[in-house]
C-alpha cells in the first residue's frame, strides 16, 4: 500500500522524512544524552531530540551521529561488526533513535508495513549501506538505499534527465549523472567533505587572524551562511563577535569568509570535473547537460555563477538550484518507494550487495 511508503534523507545535519500518507518532517540529526544521573532524573528521559535539545542543552551531551562521515559513508567491515555488538556505540544508538523517531512521527496507517527508500552518499561503502539498511529495518518492513543525488533527480522526473545533480551537504558533496535509469558506478561519486569542513576552516582562520575572538562551530556556520559568497561580488562581512574578555567586538571578516568559501567552491568544481570525465554513458556531452545544485550548501551565494565560469560554461550550460533543497531528497526517495514494483526492491538490494567500494578516490579530499 503506497500510504506506507517512506522516503528518508539521513543528513549529517538534518534528517528529512516523507510518508506516502502526506506527512513529512525535518529533524536536526542530533541526539542529546543526559550528562549524568542528576540530569537524567531532571529531564526524565534517556535521550532527547529536536527542539527539546535546546531546552535542556547544558544538561546534555549532544551527539551528531553522522558527522565526520561516520556511519553512513566510510565504515569498513570491522567497524560494522562493532556496531552490531551488544554494546552498540553511542553514535549508533543516536542514529537508531533518529531513524525510529523520524519514521514513527509520520504516523503511517500500518507502520510495521513501512517500505523505505533511504538516500546515502553516492560512494558510500557497502558496509555503511548495510548499516543504514539495518537501522531502518529495525522499524520498517523493507528498506533499500539509493544515492542522495539520484533520489533528488528521480523526484524531479523527466525534467531532470540529462542532468548532473550536485548535492552539497554538511558531510559530503555527492554527484550523479541522471538519464532515467539507475546510475552505474562511474555515473556517481562523492567528495568526502561538505559544509562542516568549511565551518572548521573558517573558525580556525578567524582564531589565527583575530586571537581575541571566540568563535564556536555553530557561530562559524552562521557567519558562512550569512556572509559567504563566491560570485563576482564579495559580500562585506563586518560582524560583532564574542571575545575572550567577555565583551563583544566588531571584526571585518570579509576576506577570511570569502577565501574559505572560494577554496570550497574550487574543491567542489575539481571534483565535478573528475566526475564528468568518469561518466561512462556514450551520449554524455557537457554542453548538452544541465547542472543542478541541491542540498543546503547549494544556497552559497554565487556558486552557480562560479561553476559556470570555472568550467567555461557561461551561456552554454545552465547551472541552477532545486526549488526545495530541504525535502528534494526525501520526496524523491518517497516517489521511488511508491513507484518501484515489488521485484524492484530486490534489484536494489542485490545491487547494493554487489557494490564495490569506490569511495577511495575522493575520500577526505
Ligand atoms: N546560505 C548558505 N551558504 C553556505 N552554506 C549553506 C547555506 N545554507 C546552508 N548551508 C550549509 O548547508 C549544509 C547543510 O546542508 P544539508 O542540510 O543539505 O546537509 P545534510 O543533508 O544534513 O548533510 P549530508 O548530505 O552531507 O549528510 C550546512 O553545512 C550549512 O551550513
Ligand atoms: Mg544531504
Please give a structural write-up.
The chain is of the alpha/beta class and 365 residues long. It folds into three domains: 2-154 and 326-361, ATPase, nucleotide binding domain (Nucleotidyltransferase, domain 5), CATH 3.30.420; 159-193 and 261-321, 2-Layer Sandwich (Nucleotidyltransferase, domain 5); 196-259, ATPase, nucleotide binding domain (Nucleotidyltransferase, domain 5), CATH 3.30.420.40. It has twelve helices and 14 strands. The chain has helices at residues 37-43, 52-56, 77-84, 90-104, 126-137, 148-156, 195-209, 217-227, 254-278, 303-310, 328-339, 342-354; strands at residues 5-10, 14-19, 24-28, 31-34, 60-63, 115-120, 142-147, 163-168, 173-178, 188-191, 238-242, 248-252, 290-294, 319-321. A five-stranded mixed β-sheet has the order 3-2-1-6-7. Helix 3 packs parallel to helix 5 (126-137) and helix 7 (195-209) crosses helix 8. The chain is globular and about 60 Å long. The protein binds adenosine-5'-triphosphate (ATP) and magnesium ion. Magnesium ion is lined by residues 9, 11, 148, 167, 169, 295, 329.
Structure described in brief:
This protein has 365 residues and is α/β, with parallel strands linked by helices. The protein is built from 12 helices and 14 strands. The protein has 3 domains: 189 residues, ATPase, nucleotide binding domain (Nucleotidyltransferase, domain 5, 2-Layer Sandwich), CATH 3.30.420; 96 residues, Nucleotidyltransferase, domain 5; 64 residues, ATPase, nucleotide binding domain (Nucleotidyltransferase, domain 5, 2-Layer Sandwich).
